[in-house]
Amino acid sequence: MRAVWLALALWGAIHPMYYFVSYMRAEGVGLTGLSQAWYVNASTTGLTWDLIIAAISLTVWVLYEATQKRDWLRLVAIPATFCIGVSCGLPLYLYLRSRKG
């Protein structure tokens, strides 16, 4: 399963980023314009809040388990979640969690 988690983390980093970069190139805007697009209608706002809540939930889980196990490498999943997305952060955390040691 480790290879699956790693493959999903890589896919979750690359695939969504392709669309973010494509949007920013087409619209000529940076992160501010991109984040404004997340709230253009009720559908995108709902999806945005869904992802924010999932990211916060994952962060709480990572913090809890990392402190319990004293496995600080797991904390890498937090910036991956907020800088890239839950589609990268969650499988990355599962990959890090599944290692021996």
**What is the string of SSEs from the N terminus onward?**
HHHHH
| Beta strand % | under 5%
Q: Estimate the global geometry from the Cα principal axes.
A: elongated
User: What class, by secondary structure content?
Assistant: mainly alpha
Helix content: over 70%
Number of strand elements: 0
Distance between the termini: 16 Å
Low-pLDDT segments: none
The tally of helices reads: 5
Radius of gyration, rounded?
15 Å
The major β-sheet equals: none
**What's the domain count?**
1
Descriptive tags:
mainly alpha, 101 residues, elongated
What is the fold's blueprint, element by element?
Layout: H1 2-27, H2 31-37, H3 42-69, H4 77-83, H5 86-97
Helix pairs in contact: 1-5, 3-4, 3-5, 4-5
Outline:
The protein has 101 residues and is mainly α. The protein has 5 helices and no strands. It has one domain.
Q: What can you tell me about this protein's structure?
A:
With 101 residues, the protein is mostly helical. It has one domain (2-97). 79% of the residues lie in helices and 0% in strands. It contains five helices and no strands. The chain has helices spanning 2-27, 31-37, 42-69, 77-83, 86-97. Helix 3 runs parallel beside helix 5 (86-97) and helix 4 (77-83) packs antiparallel against helix 5 (86-97). The two termini are 16 Å apart.
